[in-house]
Amino acid sequence: MPDVKRWKYAVVLTLAAVVVGCSSNSKKELPPAELPKFEEEVQLKKEWSRLIGDGQGETFNMLVPAVDGDVIYAADVEGVVMALDRFSGKVIWKEDLELPVSGAVGAGYGMVLLGTLKGEVIALDTSNGEEKWRARVTSEVLAPPATNGDVVIVQTQDDRLIALDADTGNQRWIYESTPAVLTLRGTGAPIVTNRLAIAGLSTGKVIALDTQRGLPVWEQRVAVPSGRSELDRVVDIDGGLLLSGGTLYVVTYQGRVAGLDVESGRVLWQREASSYVGVAQGFGSVYVSQASGTVEGIDERSSSALWSNDQLARRQLSAPEVFSSYVAVGDLEGYLHLLSQVDGRFVGRTRIDSDGLRARPLVVGEWLYAYGNGGELVGLTIR
């Protein structure tokens, strides 16, 4: 059912409702595909596990942890924020903000950054969790703020980009755009470089702004809304952006996956796709978790499909992540799947959290971190 969040612009849909509603034209929806059996080639070793409060909560939150140095930071929906040694899982500090956290976690330059449903951005000190500053923005923040040490960039549900001073939280500038009439409940996390603040919008566009003044440097449309109904015309960029080298990777719902030149916004390649969770990249290939549950490997040079695995159909997949020679992806029953980057076959599987696993896996070196919907945060390595 629709999740009405801002009547001013119309209806904001929950991702789960859209995925279920669009997955079939029949009155009786098909259930999630049963897990296929396979010969395990890779074993994931659980090095440690820690419960982070209530986890993602009942709404469709994407509270992805963040790593800064040897510390991993994670937050739950009720405002519990924890800093852990990423190798042992040992708690370094814990704070309870007692606020409905919906955008988490950004970390870097001595700050842990969070956004709330009440339209607040909070900066904590990475060393002890003490609050450094708090700022009010225009609406709820559903993605982690990002910083380059000078400014903190926040993307709000109403498609505004706001720059806050990294030291004080004072607003420096605001960029306003008109959201689509109908949007998914969520936004992608912005990316900040020394010069550019980059974000994907609900209209299927990517915008790059000058970090100092908030003026547009370039704008590129990735998807063109089409169809008779407003639901058919939803082309949100909710899965976040990925920057690797000079290429910016982006995927829209009911639109395209594309590689853009980060300096000019020029389209380097593109291909039809539909995803609300994002992409991964490695070894000249791009990996997409489609809204249908298909995982696809794409050759960047030709934009053609290298392989396609549809055996996780309707399992509400997380964003993929490259881990060693594999692609890791979570599902609604809390399983973490490993697929071969070469041909997409299953090579490993483990269950993280019976409540589900919708947050993107986080990979740092030889470690993978998975944060389940119920609050289970796990550090994994390959045996």
UniProtKB/TrEMBL annotation:
GO terms for biological process: Gram-negative-bacterium-type cell outer membrane assembly; protein insertion into membrane. This is Outer membrane protein assembly factor BamB. The keyword Nuclease does not apply. Keywords: Cell outer membrane, Lipoprotein, Membrane, Palmitate, Signal. It is a lipid-anchor. GO terms for cellular component: cell outer membrane. The keyword Lipoprotein applies. Part of the Bam complex. SMART domains: PQQ. Part of the outer membrane protein assembly complex, which is involved in assembly and insertion of beta-barrel proteins into the outer membrane. Residues 78-309 form the Pyrrolo-quinoline quinone repeat domain. The lineage of its organism: Bacteria, Pseudomonadati, Pseudomonadota, Gammaproteobacteria, Pseudomonadales. It is found in: Cell outer membrane. Belongs to the BamB family. InterPro entries: BamB, PQQ_b-propeller_rpt, PQQ_rpt_dom, Quinoprotein_ADH-like_sf, WD40/YVTN_repeat-like_dom_sf.
